[in-house]
Amino acid sequence: MSDPGLRNPGQGTPAEPAAVVEVLLQALPYIEAFRGSVVVVKFGGNAMTDPALFESFASDIVWMHRVGMRPVVVHGGGPQIGEWMGRLGRESTFVDGRRVTDSETLEVAQMVLMGKVNSDIVNALNSGGPVAVGLSGTDASMLEAEPHDPELGFVGRVSEVHPELIERTLAMDLVPVLATIGVDGAGQRYNINADDAATAVARRLGAEKLVFLTDVPGLLADATDPGSLIERVTAERIGELVSDGTISGGMVPKMAGCAEAVRGGVGSVHLIDGRIPHVLLLELFTDEGVGTMVTADGES
After folding, report:
1. What separation in angstroms does the CA of 180 have from each of 34, 63, 126, 155, 242?
2. Which of 140, 164, 191, 285 meets the CB 3.0–4.6 Å disulfide criterion with 27?
3. Is the model's pLDDT at 248 over the cut of 60?
4. pLDDT at residue 3 in the model
5. Residue 250 phi/psi, 5° resolution?
6. DSSP code per residue over 84-137
7. CA distance 287 to 189
8. Confidence of residue 49 (pLDDT cuts 50, 70, 90)
9. In which element (H, E) is residue 188 found?
10. Which residues contact 201 (CB under 8 A, 6 or more apart)?
């Protein structure tokens, strides 16, 4: 089995026996509770570009699979697309944080997401045995798309999720790894924001959990203070925090998506810091957790 996170980070030597027992005792109720549950994980940020964090992420997904959870990985690849655009002598233009995508940029995005990033994730998950299968939103029109804004070109929003291929993959006891390229009824492809795609997939599957790996500790009461983490928040409270300015900038659409997810049937949404090794296991299988958990209105 891959390292399940019970070793001292960066050392490779076993932790103290008492510490191992404590971790196992904490984890067991969560393993029992989540066995058979679909957990959609949006993979991005530093965890995608840092080799050690990438390996830690892959180990966590494999561990989740082996204890009976049914993870679904949804990934973007913004930094990698930007890198390849630079190699090809092209500059990226952004509007409200979204990359303007003409036909040539779309070709680069498809090449990077489907041919490079997806393959790298699948290979990492399969390093210890056959666990994962690479998919694209274009496969069986899984992510049906429509234009997001004419100003953005071939940037799409998900109009419908056709989950049959994901469900068949899960039924084969494999981990679907989904690249976020969508397609419309005429066969036109679109680059889709990975946060939006993960939310749509989680809602359509009725996932128990939707987890976003980010480059921040979670939702902060003060964006300049990493210690002001809001550990738990309801969908209704998110609206209030947007209104009073606590949630601002790029966090507004992300948190709105979290509220949309739990109101749409997802059990809970988690924003966690992907810069922490084994952060998925820490959030899902320990009492304290490490990020922000979003729940439906009326839940505490």
Report:
1. 26, 24, 21, 11, 28
2. 285
3. yes
4. 40
5. -70, -15
6. HHHHTT----EETTEE-B-HHHHHHHHIIIIIIIHHHHHHHHGGGSS-EEEEET
7. 43
8. confident
9. none
10. 40, 72, 74, 143, 161, 163, 166, 178, 207
Domains of the chain are 72-195 (3.40.1160.10)
pLDDT tens digit string along 260-297? 999 999 999 999 999 999 999 999 988 777 899 999 97
Contacts of 127 (CB under 8 A, 6+ apart): 58
CA 149/CA 98 separation, integer angstroms: 10
Res. 2 pLDDT band, cuts 50 70 90: very low
- Residue 78 C-alpha from the chain's centroid: 13
CB 86 within 8 A of CB 78: no
Sheet order of strands, 132-136 included: 132-136, 175-179, 70-75, 38-43, 209-214, 268-273, 292-295, 232-234
Position of tokens 């009073």? Answer: 244
Least confident of 63-72, 115-124, 190-199, 243-252: 243-252
Eight-class DSSP state of 15: P
Task: Kindly state the DSSP code that residue 73 receives in the 8-state scheme.
Answer: E
Distance between alpha carbon 210 and the CA centroid of its chain, in Å?
7
Assign 21 a pLDDT band (cuts: 50, 70, 90): confident
